[in-house]
Amino acid sequence: MAAKTEKTAMQTYEERAQDIGALLGWLQDELEVHEEKAKADPRNWGLVGDLTEVRMRLVDALTFLSNNNEMAIAEALADLRN
Q1: If you write DSSP's letter for every residue of 30-60 in order, what string do you get?
Q2: Is residue 15 part of a domain?
Q3: Domains identified in the chain, total number
Q4: 18 lies in a domain?
Q5: pLDDT at 71
Q6: What pTM value is reported for the model?
Q7: Rounded CA gap, 24 and 33, in Å?
Q8: CA-CA distances (angstroms) from residue 80 to 9, 28, 67, 75?
Q9: Residue 47 belongs to some domain of the structure
Q10: What are the backbone dihedrals phi and psi of residue 42, each rounded to the nearest 5 degrees, phi first?
Q11: Tens digit of pLDDT for each residue in 26-48?
């Protein structure tokens, strides 16, 4: 029986990084579909709520990964909008 080859930490890291890149692309695709729904129903605050939830989760992920706090991220986002 052949021995099971375990992945190294770096191999697993690279897989996870590739997965995250793919998920970000998929998220962009879904955001475009969602935007079409919002354009078709511009009074629908539920769609705004969807994006509010996604934004919150992305801020949480960025806070975790970057060691920045939510306030710093909020300020950076505000600067980008100006």
Answers
A1: HHHHHHHHHHHSTT-HHHHHHHHHHHHHHHH
A2: no
A3: 1
A4: no
A5: 95
A6: 0.85
A7: 14
A8: 35, 18, 20, 9
A9: yes
A10: -65, -10
A11: 999 999 999 999 999 999 999 99
Enclosing H/E stretch for 12: helix 9-40
Q: Are 70 and 63 in contact (CB under 8 A)?
A: yes
Cα distance between residue 19 and residue 75, in whole Å: 28
Assigned domain for 33 exists: no
Q: Is residue 1's pLDDT more than 80? A: no
Exposure of 66 by Cβ count < 10 A (0-12 exposed, 13-18 middle, 19+ buried)? exposed
51, 62, 7, 11 alpha-carbon torsion, rounded to 10°: 100
Q: By residue range, what is the domain housing residue 74?
A: 43-82
Return the SS3 of 65.
Answer: helix
Tokens of 73: 């991220």
33 alpha carbon, distance to own chain's centre: 16
